[in-house]
Design goal:
320 residues, four-stranded parallel β-sheet, two-stranded parallel sheet, 15% strand
Length: 320
């Protein structure tokens, strides 16, 4: 495992352990070793995806490599994103091939597709990826690097592209901003009303990686990971409010703000007036570029994979 201490990586480690595997959990710093207290079958190792020696030592005697390490912060300089997310992925695949690894799986991102503003249908793996923003482009280059090494060496390679990931411990920039806003600002859907978005729970992302690793499927394949039915924003907001009602006293302020936000959305003219006066100081604009895109995971479903977390209310409640 690379990125074993991260949001997705921690859940992959747990899923591997539950399936009976022993895990060599790669983390960036020695101080991250205690992230796996009391977990039998986990061997924490310090790795740097740009350092071949540390990767080769970590991969010695392993059968599968799960590559989840990545830089996620969009404020990271473009050059560093490419160095780690693309160059680091190439290094991981080169070392995996040299170490005799049987299968390597790459956790990429739906961000590789770009905004696709004219795509009205659910996005499938056949839609050409054309990311231009730095993070998505770095992940796309990472995919190309992995598949290039696989083509040269014969290393069995699988790529997954999860959509917006929710779950306990989620720390994406948008998720952190939304949680902070829910406690302090009214929520403004902006141009997001009457639009749908795709989502997935982090446990299903981990389960998809294990599922694909354990099946005899062709190498070089790419799979979207998203629940079958995208959710309408209005329904997601209602599910959010229901989840807050069962979240305990510490979320009382968030419940009050959510109720006020719901009232504002019932009166668009009032919402526009408040937005023009208050601005971003008192309102959090939920819509971000790409959030109104939907994705198809039919290719993954044809491998007999089934999503466990399909109800958005349960998904969001798990984050609280």
């Amino acid at each position: 495992m690379t990125g074993a201490g991260g949001f997705v990586g921690r859940h992959v480690v747990r899923a591997l352990l539950d399936a009976g595997f022993r895990v060599r959990a790669g983390v960036r710093h020695d101080g991250d070793h205690p992230r796996f207290p009391g977990l039998r079958g986990v061997e924490p190792v310090t790795i740097d995806v740009l350092d071949a020696d540390s990767l080769v030592r970590a991969m010695e005697g392993t059968e599968h490599v799960y590559h989840c390490a990545a830089l996620l912060d969009p404020r990271t300089p473009r050059e560093l994103l490419r160095e780690v997310n693309a160059g680091g992925t190439r290094r991981v695949w080169e070392c995996a091939a040299a170490s005799g690894v049987k299968k390597a799986l790459y956790c990429s991102s739906a961000a590789v597709y770009g905004l696709l503003s004219r795509c009205d249908d659910a996005i499938t793996e056949e839609v050409p990826a054309r990311a231009i923003e730095p993070y998505g482009y770095s992940k796309l280059l990472g995919e190309r690097a992995a598949l290039d090494v696989a083509a040269r060496t014969g290393l069995h390679t699988t790529v997954i592209r999860p959509v917006a990931i929710f779950g306990p411990g989620e720390r994406t920039k948008f998720g952190s901003s939304l949680r902070a806003a829910a406690l302090s600002r009214l929520l403004n859907a902006g141009g997001f009303l009457e639009k749908r978005f795709s989502f997935v729970h982090v446990e299903d992302v981990a389960a998809a990686l294990l599922h694909l690793a354990e099946r005899e499927l062709p190498g070089g394949e790419i799979y979207n990971v998203a629940v079958k039915e995208p959710i309408l924003f209005e329904e997601a907001f209602r599910a959010y409010r229901r989840a807050l009602r069962g979240a305990g006293r510490s979320y009382a302020r968030a419940r009050l703000i959510a109720a006020a936000s719901a009232q504002l959305h019932r009166h668009p003219s009032l919402l526009r007036r408040v937005a023009s006066v208050a601005g971003d100081r008192f309102l959090f604009r939920i819509w971000h570029p790409g959030f109104d895109l939907t994705y198809s995971a039919e290719k993954l479903l044809r491998t007999s994979f089934r999503f466990r977390w399909q109800e958005f209310e349960q998904v969001f409640a798990s984050c609280l």
